[in-house]
Write a structure and sequence with these properties.
Layout (H helix, E strand, L loop, with lengths): L8 E3 L6 E4 L4 E4 L2 H8 L2 H12 L10 H26 L7 H11 L4 H5 L4 H10 L3 H8 L1
Antiparallel strand pairs: 1-2, 2-3
The chain binds zinc ion (ZN).
Organism: Artemia franciscana (Brine shrimp)
Protein name: U1-type domain-containing protein
């Protein structure tokens, strides 16, 4: 493939007398001279510029693995908030949250969200102090 042609030219479905510009969706009749003339044409150059300005659709759409990670992170945060809400609501000693977490992790060894919970004492205290509406959120969620 001639680099001068920009990788847009291929065989035409019409016949062997034509080439096809995949960018312009146009069949070009004749010799390589006509193909090179097409590549240098304003029409083709405008299409090249338009293509360069076009933002790929996947720029706007989150990739499935990113969505999965986000859902997982959201599930972990939700579980930590629920646990913290329980600790606050039932007036459970914050010192006991680590033990509670260890029991939960041993009860659900195959649950990735449970295993990812990291609500240590410091974190629980931080959530209780900095997220005053935790209990209301838990109640709304239930
Ligand atoms: Zn073209």
């Amino acid at each position: 493939m001639d680099p001068e042609l920009g990788g847009f030219i291929s065989k035409s479905d019409m016949n062997s007398q034509h080439a096809h510009c995949n960018l312009c969706k146009k069949d070009i009749r004749g010799s390589i001279y006509n193909v090179k003339r097409h590549v240098k044409s304003t029409f083709h150059k405008q299409n090249v510029q338009a293509m360069k300005r076009t933002v790929p659709v996947d720029h706007f759409v989150q990739k499935p693995e990113v969505q999965k990670e986000q859902l997982f992170d959201d599930s972990v945060k939700d579980a930590e908030l629920r646990l913290t809400g329980l600790v606050a609501k039932e007036d459970i000693s914050i010192r006991k949250t680590d033990s509670l977490l260890q029991v939960l992790k041993s009860c659900f060894p195959n649950d990735a969200v449970c295993q990812a919970l990291a609500s240590s004492r410091t974190k629980t205290t931080g959530i209780i102090k900095n997220v005053p509406a935790t209990e209301e959120k838990v109640q709304l969620a239930n």
